[in-house]
Amino acid sequence: MANITLESVGKNYTLGETTIQALNGINLSIEFGELVIIFGPSGAGKTTLLNMIGGLDVPTSGKVTVGEIPVSTLSAKWLTIYRRKKVGVVFQFFNLISRLSALENVEYALELVGVKKGSNGEVSYDSKLIRETAIEYLTKVGLQDRIHHFPAQLSGGEQQRVAIARALAKEPEILLADEPTGNLDFKIGRQVLEIMEAMTGKKLNRTVVIVTHNEAICPLGDRVIRLSDGRIVEDYTQKFKPAKDLYW
Amino acid sequence: MAKIAKNIFRALKAHKIRFFTISMVIAIGITSFNGMITAFVVMTRTYNDAFIDHKMASFTMLTANPGGSGEDAWIDYNNLTKYMNEFMNQEEESNVIAYELRIVYDTIFEIRGTRQNGRIVAYSTVDKNGNYREQPDVNGFKILTGEPFSETSQYRNVCLVETHLATYWKLEPHEFIAVGDNDIPFEILGTLGTPEYLINMGSYADIMPSPRRFGVVYLPLRIAQELLNVPGRVNEISVLLKPDLFTRQREGIAEDLMTFLEETHNLKLSEPIDRDKQPAYYLLKLDIEEAREFGYVLPAIILTMALGGLYVLLGRMVVAERKDIGVAQALGYSRKTIILQYLGIAMVVALFGTVLGSIFGLLFLDWFGPMYTQMLTIPFEPKVTIEWPILIVGFFLGFFTGLIGGYLPVRGAIQPLPAESLRFDPSLHITTGRVPLAERILNKFQIHLGVTGYKLPIRNFFRSKRRTFSSVFAVIVAVSLISMVFGMIESMTYSLFYQYEVSEDWDLRVDYSELPINASQIAMGINDSIDGVVNVTYHLISGATVTSNKSDLSKQVQLIGMNDSNGYTGHKFDFEDGGWDPNGIVMTVPIAEKLKVWTNDYVNLEIPRLTNLTSTAPLRAHFEMVNVSFPITGIVDEFNGLVVYMELNKLVDVSLFPGQPANTILVKIDNPTPTQLDSIRKEIYSKYSYNIRNIFTKEEQSSDFLELLDLIYFIIYIVAVFAVILSCSIIYNTIYINLQEQQREIATLLTIGTQNRKLIRNVTIENLIITIIGTVLGLILGWIMLWFFMRVILDMEFFRIKLFISNETMLISFGLTFIGVLVAQFFPLRRALNLDLAEATKERVI
C-alpha cells in the first residue's frame, strides 16, 4: 500500500497583484494506514496541503508522490482516475448532489469504480450489487432508515454521514476530510468522527488525513502535524491515544 | 449612493458578457423601433408632401362611359371649361382652387415587340390663356429623366412614360413605343413620377399591379385626341379643392358639381372618386398601415424578449445572492437600498442598450429612413431628419424594459426580514428533493436509470420549476422565432408554388384588351392550327360585388366565368368544402369569412347586364348593374384570395353578352419548354394578334407576384436576422446561468472521480431534454406567431397564404436551436471542467 510523500512542496496563489504563499517547502511522509490530523489556524495552508494529496490541486514547486504515483505531474485525465480509484474526500459542506437521495449519492460513487467481488478482487458494476453495497455503507454510518431521503430532508450530521459513506464506499486507499465537523455541532461532530475512526486504520487498508482547526480533534490521530504560515511547525506521533471520554 | 454605484459596477463587471448580450437585445429592439417608425414617418411625409407639392386632385370624375364612343363617353373641352368656370363662380367661398380636364383612357402599348395593357393620360400643354405650360394645374408630376413636353409637343407624337413602366422596360428618352390599337409610334421625351400612379393599378380585375402588364404614358392632349379620334374632347375632370376641407365637404362639393353638370348641362358622368379612394392613394395607405404596424410589433416582440431575459437573469442572480442580501440587511442596509442596487443593474443594462440602440438608429438613419420609400418605389426624394419624439419614445421604451425586467424579480426575492434570507439555502432552493414523475413512470415499467447515466440529467431538468421554466422558455423563444420565420417563407413560397404548379392549369395565358365575342372560335383555332397545343379554354374576368344574403356584408371581388364545355377549365380547385356546380358559384375562404357565409348559403352578385350594343368589333356597349342570387357550392382555399368562380354560360345568360365573350384564353401545351412556349406565343401573336393585350407564361406571372411580395420577403428576412441574434443571446444566457448554478456540483463530481466526458454527456443530455420540450412548445408558439403575423399584421386578403410549418422546418428549428445550445454550453462547460476544484467545492453559494 501507498505511502504519501511530499518533497519541497510549495504553492503560491496570486490575488490581484499580491502573491500568497500557501505552502512553503513542505517535506512530509505519511505512512500507509496512518490517521493524520493536520491542525492549524485559518490560512495556515492545511486545506492546500490536503488538496495536493488528493489531486485536487497541483503544487507550484516540489513533488507529491503517492506510492509509485507522481500525483503532482499527472495529466488531468490521470488525476481524475487517481481521485476516482485512490481517494475519498469528505467536505466541510458535505457537497452531496442535491437531486440524488442518500442511497443514490453513494451509488453514484460506486457506479464510477464498481464493487470488488469475491476474494480475487474482481470488479462488478452490477446495479443490484452496487445498491446492496451502498445500503451496507449507509447502514454502517447509521442511516439505514434514511436511505431514500434527499439531502434537503437530512440534518447536517446525516448529510455528513452520507458524504462519509460515499467516500468510503469506493474503498479508497486515502480518505481525506477537510474540516468534517466544521459545520456540525459538538455532539454530531463527535458521532461523525467516531464513524470515521471506526472505518479507517491499517486493518482496513486506508490512510486517513483530517484537516481541522479544532485542537480538540488532535488526540484522535496517530500523528498530528501542525501548520503555520505554510510551514510544518510541529509533527508528532501519538503512540497511546487518550481515552475518548478524555478528549471529547 | 457611491456604495450602490460601486456594487452595481462590480456586478456588471462580474457578469459582463451576459449583461452585454441583454443590452444588445435591447439595442436591437430600440434600433428597430427607431428605424422602422422613422422609416414610416419619412414614407408618410414623403408621400404626403408629394401629394401636396404635385397638387393632387381632391376628387376626379369620369364620364359615364369613359372607354366608349358615344355622348356619354366624351365631353367637349371648351364647353366643359365654360361649365367649370361657371361652377367655380357659383361655388361658395371659392373652395375650388383649380381644375384640369384630361383624357384618361385604357389601351395597349407595344414595347420592343411586346404588347401590354396600359393607360393614356393626356393633359393640355397650353393654359387657359393659350400659353405653354410644363405642368397641368392639377395632378402634377416630376420629370425624372429626359425633358418635359415643349411648346411644339402638341404637334408631335411624343410622350412621357411613368417611371414604373420605364424602369421595368429600361426605357430611355428618344426611344419609341407604339400606342393604341393601330400601333402609332411615339417618341419618349422623358420619364416622370407622380403620386397618382405610385402603385400602378389597372382595372379592378387586375389584382396584381405590375408594370409588366399595366403602365401609364402621358401624352399632350391634342395628340391624344387625334390618336383616339375624339378631337376637342376629354373624359375626365380633376378638381383641386382647398386643403383644409374635410372628406364630407369634399364629397359635398363633388356631388354639387356632378348635379350641376348633369342637370344644368345634360352631361353624363360617373360617380366622383374622392382623393382617399383614389387607387394609388388607397393602396399606399394600406401599405403604410402595414409598415406602421410592423414598426410597432417587431420592436415590441424584441423588447419583450429582452425583458424576459433580464427578468430571468436578475431573478437567478438574486436567488444566488440571497444569503449576501440577508447579510447586507443584517448589517443595516435597507430593503429599499438593496432593491435600488439590483434595479440599478437592470437600469444600467437597459439604458446602455437604449443608448446603443438610439445611436445605431441615428447611424443607420440614412438606411432606415428611405427604406419603405424605396421598397414601394416612391419616386420622390425622402426628407430624412432626426425624429426627436421617436427617439424620446424609444428611450422610454428601453427605460421601462429595464424597470419592469429589473424590479419584478428583485422585489419578490428580497424578504422583509434578513433572517428569512439568511435561512435560505440556494443549493436546496433549486431542487425539489423528490423523484420526478417521469422517472417514477419509468420505474413502474421496471426501467431504472443509472445514477451516473441518465438519472442525473433528468433530475437536473426537474430540479426546480423556475429553473426549468426559464431554460425551456429560452428554447421556446428560439424555436418559435426560427419556426415562425421559416414558416413564413415556406408558406408563401409553397402557396405560390401550389397556385402555379397545381391550381393554374395552363402554360400560356392570352389577355385581351377588349372583349372578343368569338372566344370559342379563337380557342378552337388555336387548338387546331398550332402544333403542341393540348387544350384551350377561355375565361371572362370582370370585377363584381358580392353581398351576403344573410347580412349587408359585401366584398369587391374578381369574378371569373369559366368555360367548362370540354372538361378543361384551366384551373384545378382544391376544395375546402363542397365542389364545382355550374348552377352555383365557388368562392375563396377570405370572401366566405368576410361575408360570414359557407357552402349552401346564397349570395348576391352584382353583375353588368347589357342594355345597349353599339358595335361588336370593337365591342362598344352599355351596361347596367344587376343583382343575381347564387348558391355557394364550393369554397376553395387558394393563393388568389378574392376570387369568385362561376360557369361562363351562366354568367353570359345573366349578363346578356352577345356571342361567346371572353377576355382571357388559357392554353395548355405539350412539353412546355421555354423554346416551345416562345414559339407558340409568337404563332398566336401572328395568327390572332387582333386585340391581344399580352401573352405571358406562368413563370412570368409568378415572377410578377414575387416582385410584388419583395417587400414582405424583405421584412421576413429582417425578422429572421433578429430572430437568430435574439435566439443566440437568450440561449447563451440561459445555458450559462444553468451551468454556473451547477459549478459546485460539477466540482464535487470531478473530485469524486467523474470523467469529463461523462459530465459533458450529462450536461448535453439535460440540454437535449430542454431543447426537445422547448421545441415542442416553441413550434406551437411559432405557429401561433406565424398566424398572428400573417393573418393579423400582414393581413393581405388579396393573397391567401396557407400557413404551415413543414417537418423540415421543425427539424431545422430543433437542429439550429440545439446547435445554439451546444455552442452556448461549450464555453461555460469548458470553464467548469477547468475549475479550481479545491475552491469550487468549498463554495457555499451556487
Quick summary of this structure?
The complex is a heterodimer of chains A (248) and B (846). Helices cover 31% and strands 28% of the residues of chain A.
List keywords for this structure.
heterodimer; A: 248 residues; alpha/beta; Rossmann fold; 6-stranded mixed sheet; 3-stranded antiparallel sheet; 7 helices; 31% helix; 28% strand; globular; B: 846 residues; alpha+beta; 4 domains; 6-stranded mixed β-barrel; 6-stranded mixed beta barrel; 22 strands; 52% helix; 19% strand
- Compute the CA-based radius of gyration of chain A: 18 Å
Q: Number of DSSP strands of chain A?
A: 11
In total, the number of strands of chain B is: 22
**Low-pLDDT ranges of chain B:** none
Silhouette of chain A: globular
Instruction: Give the helix/strand class of chain A.
Output: alpha/beta
- What's the overall geometry of chain B? elongated
Mean of all residue-level pLDDT scores of chain B: 82
Greatest interface by residues involved: A-B, 41 and 33 residues
Please state the second-level CATH architecture of chain A: 3-Layer(aba) Sandwich
- What's the gyration radius of chain B in Å? 34 Å
- Domain module tally of chain A: 1
Count every helix of chain B, treating DSSP H or I runs of 4 or more residues as helices.
27
Beta content of chain B comes to 15-25%
Q: Into which percentage range does the β-strand content of chain A fall?
A: 25-35%
Structural class by secondary-structure content of chain B:
alpha+beta
CATH evolutionary superfamily of chain A:
P-loop containing nucleotide triphosphate hydrolases
The quaternary structure here is heterodimer
Give the N-terminus to C-terminus distance of chain A in angstroms.
Answer: 31 Å
Task: Please give the order of strands in the largest beta sheet of chain A.
Answer: 5-8-9-3-10-11
Helical proportion of chain B, percent range: 40-55%
